[in-house]
Amino acid sequence: MHWIALQPSHKPLVPVAGADAAVLVDADTALAWWALRFTPLVARMDTSLVLEVSQSERLFGGRAALLQQLLESEACVMLDHAQGATALLALARLWARAPDAPIHSLPLHTLAAAREHLPTLQRLGCNTWGQLRALPRGGLVRRFGAGLVDALDCAYGQRPEVYPWLTLPDVFAQRLELSAAVESASALLFGARRLLAQLLVWLRARQRGVQELELLWELDARRSNAQHIDAYHDGSSQGRMLVRTAEPTQDMQHLQRLLGEQLAQVTLPAPVLYLHLRTVQTQALHGESHSLLPEDVRKGDSLHQMLERLGARLGREQVTCVQQQERHCPEHMQVWAPWSSASGKPSSAPTCVRANATHGAAQMGGDAGLDNALLPTWLLPVPLPLGVKQQCPQYHGPLILLAGPQRIEAGWLEDNSIALRDYFVARSEHAGLVWIYRERLGRTHAHKKTSAEPGLRWFLHGLFA
After folding, report:
1. In CATH, what class is 173-284?
2. pTM of structure
């Protein structure tokens, strides 16, 4: 077995995970979560951590390579370290600031079990581990108890070492006590930033991305003037906010912007004393291949991040998107509906999104199949009746039929909405390519007859860009 002992040094802090260690809510816990990336056997000993890495050395390319990655990766703080065949030996060398000291020469104060007996042991002339080990075992047990002898045996590797191993929580939940009461919702973003920095360490350790999280704040109930706030069991009050993303993410800056947009719309009924942050939904992250070509590297926010920011700023009802419907009639194939992160999953079908949507022509979506290959770019809100001369439809002059017919029969299960149409792609000398249809047998009830010839009514339904 091989153990590595770690302890934060007193050197200046370095950035980790996009934040300084001073920003973290609990730097010691964050350091333990970070250490679990290298081995599952991590235990806390006083203010230090011990890692058993013998089973992980091969994964990282050997002991030297593992130690190099351990010390050069993005840790929470600058670290002091020491190694040893046992955890107590590694800790003693770390605390003694002597990484290569022989085990017999280590001072007694570096053995935790001997600290309470140091004055007596020093009067006996015992100042090192070797001197303590040379004393009769029976006398040590009678005088100081079996715990001291057992700890000495564990330090020399003659007894197994058993520790409560640290584990990552399944759900991130962190509480932050604010240094002063906060009366403005926008000012809560400073405390939320510290919670997000702690969340990022947890996400990286679990290799997951967050899709939904909850920010909760506790109000000072003595100064609360709200009437619709849930009461805690201890008499305080609370408010909460949910933040959702379309894709699992570890981008804390994006989450901070979403929180800022939503907090700007919140009015606090009383000062806030505590903040809570909890993950509601997370998802494992998959590897992503990045292009080496500079033109393929895009800068700025992605589409779903921009839409989430617009939804948080303008309101969910103000950002709409096309949702496809299982209907055959072209004007019913899609509807405009409020965009939400839950419905913003990536799809191979074209998607159109608009903010502050206005009524008008809708962009067609759908699969690029053979039947949909002739669908136009834009549909008219209401089909435009066309005149007919000598059985030729007219739109800024005579239309030349280029492709068709594409027959559509829809709405036969519904009353007064039967559509029996033959669609054609036509060309107009002045309007370009258009999408027209001819009613069959005059069965459509939605439009009035516009031609003297029965069964030959033509309508303009779409335009090609």
Report:
1. alpha beta
2. 0.61
